């Protein structure tokens, strides 16, 4: 379903030509981050020019799970209605599975009087089109299809962009501030940050149709061998399946090797309720793959330019935290820019926005650290200490109460506190060591316990 109309675009391009010709902000990209920022700044009265490579509805296999913390940011931005009319499914938590056992972990939502506060699963493209449509309805916003070729720099200051229109015409657009939100494949980030992209694994993606999850309206995480498998609803009759495969390569689709791997290895580790739909999805052949990228935010302070979204900061998508981080960043940036009458002093603005990189850290570092560390913990290993940590984490979360509420509040973006994250990680380690010492400690168990603590220290230090 396409909610964004080309006719609306055409009307937007010709209205208020004077304002469109002198934008205050250029936004490169109209994905989740770009569209949300477009609306947020436009709603504040800023003149905004957005240049997006393709304004057709995207068809992606990630960006489909919005955590409750992200939904709260949508409310603050005035975009919560963008998850309506797209068959989005409420998500109330997770269920984790290991060796035939399962445990339900619910989001701590009782404190919210608004019953709509929950996670959401949806088709990424439908969500983006709703936001584009809403942004394009503002009279001071111009949304244009085109490809940005390069940033326009003068004496170390970004003055705008060089781009090609959909008709191939090369143009230049000027603005005091250019925000680059062109996603994980960004070709502009190299001049704005230290881009150290890591690819720890790949996702193999399918859509399961007309099946019921063991726990309705919950994401499902299977602690499989060699790494996790995810299931979550994206519409009233569709469930997204993501199979993680470590490394940068997956078995070939064309030779049937991947389908055989899914049938012979993966299908044996999923809940029985999903088996038939899983096999049916494989046989339909609509299997897609994508690399999972991770990249810490390491920006170069650049007058006149700023990075946002996946162009700026990426984490393993296991925890579905990307949109929550992006929306949190956008809300923060909007609030920082709101009291400024003019953006014309690029050097002063660059200095002022240094606070953005400090203020974003509690949310971003909590979700990024959790994503990277949980992926390591939830993956199988030949290291006995790593496997003990994996089992300890599953059993710790299965205790319920404060033992599950704390971690799930961190994951959901409802409690973005890095210190709490560290405390829970070490609580898991202590819990695991305590079990190893029962009924009596032995040299082997003491050594494994010491290794377990060491592994946990390395994981937390690696991502914080």
From TrEMBL:
What SUPFAM superfamilies would the database entry show? FAD/NAD(P)-binding domain
Gene3D superfamilies with a match to the protein in the record: FAD/NAD(P)-binding domain
Q: What is its EC number?
A: 1.14.14.17
**Looking at the record's lineage, which domain of life comes first?**
Eukaryota
Q: Which reaction does it catalyse?
A: squalene + reduced [NADPH--hemoprotein reductase] + O2 = (S)-2,3-epoxysqualene + oxidized [NADPH--hemoprotein reductase] + H2O + H(+)
Name this polypeptide is given: Squalene monooxygenase
Q: Mind listing the UniProt keywords for this protein, alphabetically?
A: FAD, Flavoprotein, Membrane, Oxidoreductase, Transmembrane, Transmembrane helix
Q: Which organism is it from?
A: Jatropha curcas (Barbados nut)
GO terms for biological process? response to hormone; sterol biosynthetic process
Localization, per the record, is:
Membrane
